[in-house]
Structures are given as C-alpha cells and as structure tokens.
Amino acid sequence: MSRQDTISGIYNYPVPTTTATTETILLAPSASGVYAGLPSPTFPLSTTTYPCGLNIAPPPDIALGTLNGRPFEIFIAGYVTTTATTSFTINLYNFTAAALGSPSGSAYKGASTTGTGVTKLVTGTATAVGSGGASVNFVFRQQYIWDSVSGILAAANAPTTFQKGVTVSNTQSAATVSGLAETDLNFAPSFTYSATNSPTLILTDFVINRI
Q1: What does the domain layout of the chain look like in residue ranges?
Q2: What distance in Å separates the CA atoms of residue 107 and residue 35, rounded to the nearest whole number?
Q3: pLDDT 10s digit of each residue in the chain, 211 long?
Q4: What is the Cα–Cα distance from 26 to 189, expressed in whole angstroms?
Q5: What angle do CA 150, 153, 138 make, to 5 degrees?
Q6: Would you call 31 helix, strand, or coil by DSSP?
C-alpha cells in the first residue's frame, strides 16, 4: 500500500522473465491486461525486438516543490520464486530524459543498461535464491538528494539490501550524477539470474518516498 510520503511508484508488478545470465532492465509488459494502466502513451508494450524500459520518476507538477534540496528514498521490495536454486542480482540505474527518449513507432529507448545518460547507481551482489518453488523476499533502499541549482543527484546514505532477513552487500557504483534537471530523475532496477529455471519475480513495491 502507498504511504503518505510516497510520490511515485509501481505495486505488485509481475516482472517479465529475463534470459539467464543477461542483465535486463525493468521492462514494460509484453501483453495488455498484465498490469493496470499499461500499456500507456509513455510505456507501450515490450516486444523481443523493441523492449520498453519501465521507470519511475517524481511527478513533474510536484517534484521541485517536494524534492528540491530534500532527501528522498528509492525503495524496492519483492519476491523471487524459482524451480531450482539460482543466483539473483539487482542493480539500480538513473536515466536522463534524453536516454529514455519517447515512443516512436515500434522503437523505444530506456531498455538498455548502457549508453549516454544511463548511470549505474548501485551494483548488487549475486546471491542464491529459493529452490523447489520456494519464494525469497528481498528489500532494497537508498536515500538520495538533488537540487535544481547544482543539478547534482547525490547518495545520502549507503544502499542496503536484505534477502530473508540477511544483509546482501552492495557497491555504490556512482555516489553522484551531475547535470541533472528535474526531468532527468528517472530510476529503474535491473535483474540478472544465473540460470534458466522458470524464475518469477513480483515487485511488491518500487517507489520514491520523501524522507
């Protein structure tokens, strides 16, 4: 459920299955009826040829008044279910507005983890997750601060990840990102599995919270 300090988010989202050992950014669904509100003019359906990256950002009408010079939190929670033991890695990225682009025909940007305007903020650690259909819960969070004068997005604390109550180490891949306007505060996680064994991933929460 949404908190009073949540300004943007996705809830109970069934993440499309990714290819084993391939890091894949969070994608929009490949079929209608999978998640309420999608597809949309901003996030059309993903296809194999044209995957569509799915991200969250502060709403433009309140971002400057709410987040300008004030810390906020990226919070991700969910659970992974697999048919056999595999490893699972979650990373966090920032996308500029130019990196995301806009829908144009069948092509859509924002599905790549590399390129101009794409910055890996946090690198997670591959950890073993459930076997035999068991679900493994995880929680990731980190605080950031940005202001419209400096245009710098800066980490405000160390990232933390927990799986089944156990700490999973993270690497702060970028403590700051420079030259960001309000419209450049776009965030998306990526996911990597070590093997193909029909993993399913539900993001119960992927939100921006005021601090």
Answers
A1: 6-210
A2: 21
A3: 455 676 788 999 999 888 888 899 999 999 999 999 999 988 989 988 888 999 999 876 655 567 888 899 999 999 998 888 888 899 999 999 999 877 665 667 788 899 899 999 999 998 888 777 678 899 999 999 999 999 999 999 999 999 888 899 999 999 999 999 988 999 999 999 887 677 889 999 999 998 8
A4: 6
A5: 170
A6: coil
